[in-house]
Specification:
mainly alpha; globular
Amino acid sequence: MSATGAAWTEWRRHGTLPLAAALGYSTAVLHVYAIGPFMGPVTEEFGFSRAQASVGITIAGLVAAAMSVPIGLLVDRVGPRRVGLLGVFLMTLAFGLLGTATGSTMNWIVLWCLISIGNLFLQATVWTSAVATRFEASRGLAFAITFSGASLAATVYPILGTWLIGAYGWRVGFMGLAAIWFLLVFPVMFFFFRGAEDKGGSHETVVGSPSAAPGVSVAEGVRMRAFYQLLLACGLFTFTALGIIVHFVPILISGGAERLAAAQVASLIGIFSLIGRLGTGFLLDRLPSQFVGAFVFLLPILACALLYLDGANPLSQSVAAACFGLTVGAEVDVIAYLASRHFGLKNYGVLFGAMVGAFALGVAFGPLAAGAAYDLYGSYAQFLLGTMVAMAVSSLALATLGRPRFAAGH
């Protein structure tokens, strides 16, 4: 069968799976993309610094980093469906509870610890493990659609959160956003999210279950140079890019933008991230994947330069949001795809789980570092400069990966 024919067969049989996975993944980033509009009201009411308000994301990232490999083992053992359903329930419940915050630092930390627990069961390994068992010829595009859930989140959360805060206050905003997302996502997940290894689903699959799929052993994987290059790219990218994304609305407000206008510009990140994901997924199936990834990771350098040199200009702000969106719309897709091609699927949950851990460490410290930089210097300029350097290193790490061992069709 031709590659086009094989891809069409995959989508005809399992086309609802990446769509359900996309909604699930949108819940995984609820605490990252929705917190921006709430940061101002929370800090104003409780007297928190930006770093204090961001510390919850640090907690969630540290817990995710510590547990990423065990969660990968759990997914490999019980299948992604049960893990994902539990995660959607726990995550939305925990996020809604932020509306009960008392202003105590300890209370704020405890609430974010609950979010950390829920977020564990929504890691990228859950979604890619299911999709990879159903898609081979069109895996890049399937991953792109899966991670487009983050694009949806980045587009909807800032506007919906800002509207809820304006209409009902920030406490109801937290609870309302969580309730809306649970009612939207959970039913779709329940009916349509099943990988080849999940009980109750069709076992007819293109690739087969992970236990029968080709791939390196865990010991082999951790000895590969590509393993450490991917870890480096993951960590540096997420540390800097997520630091910018979480603080993007405050960055624009510090440049003179009105709160709602800043939220509207920030929503461009979500719109362009969808373009970035789909475009990158299309290219990953057709061009050398390491070079596609390397190019995508260069785009934030332009975005940071615009914000640093001309951050008060609405056009510069919009172009910067678009550039960040194109990259944030592709970074997990690129790493997930490269991991599946360099390591295979046999121990994908564990090996990609390590990449998720590197992403999580970046999430843990990036927003905190951005907030601390603002508190120290009264500006985000220093963090923008550091982001440009980190992105260049990440791009180089991907460009020098070499030919993947498990290329499509092999």
